[in-house]
Amino acid sequence: PEPTPPPVATAPDDAPPPVSPEPTQRRAVRPPPEPRAPVARPQDPALPPATRTAPVLARDGVITVFAPDRTLVSGEEENALIVEGGVVLQHIDRVGGRTVQLSAERAVVFLSPGPIAETLRMGPDDVRGVYLEGNVVATDGGYTLRGPRVFYDVATDRAIVLDAVFWTYNETRGMPLYVRAGAIRQEAQNQWSARRVVVSNTSFAEPHLSLGAETITIERSERINAPDRLIVDARGGAFRLGDTPVLPLPRYRGDLINTPLRSVTVGSRSGRPLVRTTWDMLALAGEEPSDTLQADLLLDGYFSRGPAVGADLEWDNNEVEGGAFGYIIHDDGTDRLSSGARIDQDNEVRGMILFENRWRINEEWSLFLEAAYLSDETFVDAFFPSLAVTRREFASSLYLRRLDERSVFSLEARGNFNDFTANQYLLQSQGFNVERLPEVRYSRVADSFMDGALTYTSETSLSRLNMRFTRPRLSELGFDTSARSRAGFGLEPGDSLADQLRMQGFSQSPVARFDSRHEITAPLEFGALRVTPFAVGRVTAYDDNFSDFAPDENDKHRLFGALGVRLWTSFQRIDDGVSSSVLDLHRMRHIIEPSFTIWHGESSRSSDTYPVYDTRVEDLATGTAFRAGVSNTWQTMRGGPGQWRSVDWLTIRTDYIWSSNDADRRSPVGRWFESRPELSNLGEYATADVIWQTTDSIALSSNVIYDFEEDDVARVSAGVLLDHGHGVASYAEVIHLEPRDSTVIDFGARWDASRRYSFAANAVYDADRDDFQTMAFDIERRFPQWSLDVSISRDRIRDDTVLAVRVRPAGASGLRGSGLVPGLRAASEERGGVRSAWPIN
Fold first, then answer.
1. 3 state DSSP class of 700
2. Using CB atoms within 10 A of its CB, is residue 76 exposed (0-12), middle (13-18) or buried (19+)?
3. Are 257 and 239 in contact (CB under 8 A)?
4. What CA–CA distance (Å, rounded) separates 686 from 182?
5. CA dist., res. 38 & res. 26, Å (int)
6. Beta strands in 281-395 (DSSP E)
7. How far apart are CA 71 and CA 82, in angstroms?
8. Alpha carbons 552 and 26: distance in angstroms, whole number
9. Which of 63, 477, 591, 764 is the most buried (most CB within 10 A)?
10. CA distances from 6 to 106, 107, 150 (A)
11. Tens of pLDDT along 293-345?
């Protein structure tokens, strides 16, 4: 039972106010002590019980009372000092320097018998207890206790606050913390206990999102050169929405701020409900948040498929960085694939494991490890579709590299645990993966000879290569109708890419390959004109002549050579008279950079007589080609006085590429690589690239490739990015690809309406089919304690609709700083085809 507050004695109305520090003699009744329930001492060594080394009020301290109205009630066994009219009691630890300040409307200070100093300054031995009531606040600067009634039992070194609020601030996360309870007991200077507790990060009396617990013990642990840590031991807990418990929790021990729940997503996919949750493993284990490790536990439920569990790890301690992602589901549902196919699963256990790590051995040496395993050929397309489109090759490898200013040495062993490829661009281009068991490579860049007259670059490799074919039938990959399989591969659903590759002469037998490329350049300057002749020599040798692939060829080696020359110059003109407030122009510099390259390459063996293990080795262009182009750049100044900066206001680059008739045309869309013309897609075509930073709020870009051989535009794209101000931004892009007769428009917008609300939408429109491929809408509502994200998306290709409602507590963030594992983070954010949010790309 809560104690009954004592009667507070007051002076008669006609009594004169005290005019000296000498208190008036009155009688007061000490409040009965509250029955003390035994405080459970947790056994966790991370949370030791309070000791006398950290008392509530230090024994070496001084207590000072400040109040306008003071009355002294003396007795033989105990004195009582009654203070009113706004009371402040201050305790100063003369050794540690800690100050505890208590303020209230009125208070009773219970004293040992004897005289009282006129200054009302006393030691803890002189004070037996302090009772305060009326908007009581106790604080030491690191924490604050607030309640209507507080009693400090100085003799037994305990304190109790009724109808209490405990308040503190986490410096690491920049977030406040509030603990509310019917009664909070302070067991020591740095330890509190309570029953029937509500923990939140808002001062609202009824928080929207909170953590409830039957019993709780809190300890504030001081750390050297680091913010103090709050440790909690809570039993009988549950997450609550308002007053309703929604998610029970086991006993929780650990950092009070580091709540284990990171996010909850509730939604549906094609009308079938699903729940996704992300938990902080360190918080669940009672460990302190780490600056070098983030570990998330993924617990998901697909009501039409089955339960799923996963883990998302990321680490970075300067020398070692990396990540791991694993996900497994007991699946009894239906895959909706990017081809439009649907494949039923019959209680299958499916999943994937991804791992990557980089160890910086020293300034020059690094070791990279990578691993990938997929349970089946459609898992990624069904659950992580963005990875199927954008992720680098799913492979397992060990890569050792030495890197200095001029050279690179590497040793790589790369393989694949699966007999299929989940990367859609590899599946629809070559249909196999290449294993390197192993490959040794050594490169040198720009070695200078003869006082800079010659520059030498080389790259040499020795490899043992093996093709890993995609074995499953096309129907198993999601191309289950003749229309789908023929559109993608020109084959029937029952055909296998592995069988088709064998029929074309490809082999899975290991092949040894030696390749060495050497380039010499001789840079010359004639005033503003730079002329750079260059020569390339390359030898590639195999232990196989590939007679099954090209029966008429018997050579096991290839010699390649190329000669060329590059010319470049630059002109510029500055006009200080240019000024426009509308276009934000202040002065103008026009830079003109004409350039020209002519190149001729020859090979002892045609590239179409080799199976292509690497496009940079086997697939080399030959013949004669030249490129003529000019780059125009207009620069202006922006920013205003004291903040002027140079800006490329408008950049236009145009090129014309011509190739001889004996040059192989390997792609309907031309592309020129200036550093290595032998890797270019040759033909006769022109390109134009435009980037126009109209203002700081408007940016335009465009790219056009015109094919003179077809007398038509091969590819064109144009886009705009707008910052409308007031938190509104939008974008739009149109892409037309003539060889596929495809026109796609991608557009979207985002509006940060206020600190609480954000809205976003984007869509992809297929102009040829007059239909939307995808549409997505997102609304975010930010609360003081949490954020709510509601999104809905529609994928017409998959015939799939996704509705997701995501709740994320404030402060639920982690490491996420390593640039090594963007693919793993994307996997964590997108599970079951559901993205956590729909940001503008």
1. strand
2. exposed
3. no
4. 78
5. 36
6. 293-302, 306-316, 320-331, 334-336, 342-344, 348-360, 365-374
7. 5
8. 120
9. 477
10. 12, 10, 12
11. 889 999 999 888 899 999 999 999 889 999 999 999 999 989 889 888 999 99
Distance CA 768, CA 117 (A): 94
Reduced to 3 states (helix: H, G, I; strand: E, B; else coil), residue 570 is coil
Identify the helix (H) or strand (E) that includes residue 786. strand 786-795
- What letter represents residue 74's amino acid? S
Between CA 280 and CA 288, with CA 283 as vertex, the angle to 5 degrees is: 120
- Give the residue among 9, 42, 274, 254 at the shortest CA–CA distance from 831: 274
User: Identity (one letter) of the amino acid at 114?
Assistant: G
The mean pLDDT of the chain is 82
In terms of pTM, does the model score above 0.70? Answer: yes
Residues of the chain with pLDDT under 70: 1-56, 58-60, 115-120, 124, 169-177, 201-211, 221-230, 239-243, 246-247, 249-259, 286, 288, 784-785, 810-826, 828-829, 832-841
Spatial distance between the Cα atoms of 283 and 279, rounded to a whole number of angstroms: 8
Specify the DSSP element, H or E, that contains 460. strand 454-469
- Which is it for strands 742-751 and 757-766: parallel, antiparallel or unpaired? antiparallel
Lookup: tokens for 167: 């308040």
Cα 200 from Cα 557, distance rounded (Å): 72
Pull the structure tokens for residue 654: 């145009």
pLDDT at 264: 83
Whether 458 and 517 have beta carbons less than 8 Å apart is answered as: yes
Percent of the chain with pLDDT over 90: 41
